[in-house]
Every structure is written in C-alpha cells, then in structure tokens.
Amino acid sequence: MKNLKIVLPLLLVFISSFAVQAQKMSVKDGIKLTLEDYNIELKAGETQEKEIKVLASKFYKKAAFSLKIGSLPEGLKVNVISPISFESPAKIEISADKNISAGVYTVMIEGEGKDGAKVRTLALALKVLAGSSLSSID
Questions:
Q1: Residue 11 lies in a domain
Q2: Is the pTM above the cut of 0.70?
Q3: Does some domain include residue 113?
Q4: Do residues 108 and 73 touch, judged by C-beta distance below 8 A?
Q5: Are 110 and 90 in contact (CB under 8 A)?
Q6: Per residue in 47-63, pLDDT tens?
Q7: What is the Cα–Cα distance from 116 to 107, expressed in whole angstroms?
Q8: Domain span including residue 58
C-alpha cells in the first residue's frame, strides 16, 4: 500500500507531462487548423455558423494566411464570413439548399499562406439530412 502511494503520484505526473508534450508537438511543425466538431449535421434548407481556430508554433505566429474552401457539390455552400487570425477564430457559414440530396459530403478547407503555399487542410464530414416536406394546412 505504501508503494502505491508513492508510485501513483509519480505516474500521474509522468502522464500529465507526456500529455502536455503531445499537445505541444501537434503544432511543432507549423500551423494547425481546428474545429470543435469535425462531423456536422445540417438539414436541407438550413444554415449554420462554425468557428475554425488556428494553433501555431512560435515561429509561425506572425505568418499571414487565409482560408480557401475546396470544391463543393451543387446545393452546398461554405463561406468564410470573418478572416482567421491567431487572436480570434474564423467564422464560416455552411448552408444546404432545400433541394439538396441527403447524404454525407466531405468539405475541404485549406489554410493558404501569403505566397500561395498550402498551410494545412481541414476535412469536415457534413451530413445533410432530408428537409421537411410537410406544409401547413389552413
């Protein structure tokens, strides 16, 4: 029991320091784009706003870049409504037309450097649900 009291705190310190190192390593090589949820559900005819945050290593904190939306299927729109920066997340607006087919679509959002160099790509799985076809009866 005494050994457990000594070993357990040491083990917790080791695990927590490893977790901090793993988090630092995730942006060690430049810039990383993050989103709270990479799987988004959207009903046909609906619009949602999401935030994309940027994490960067110290060297890249002053880099200038923007977001570029990849090609989209007809009936699906993704717009950047506020630019991305290290101080504040970018806001994107995702909308599906009323007539879009239900299904799962992949949306690619790319961070693009000032000189046109690719920074990072963010892939979203966008599940579009069928819209309501019921109408009110007077």
A1: no
A2: no
A3: yes
A4: no
A5: no
A6: 999 998 887 777 766 77
A7: 20
A8: 27-129
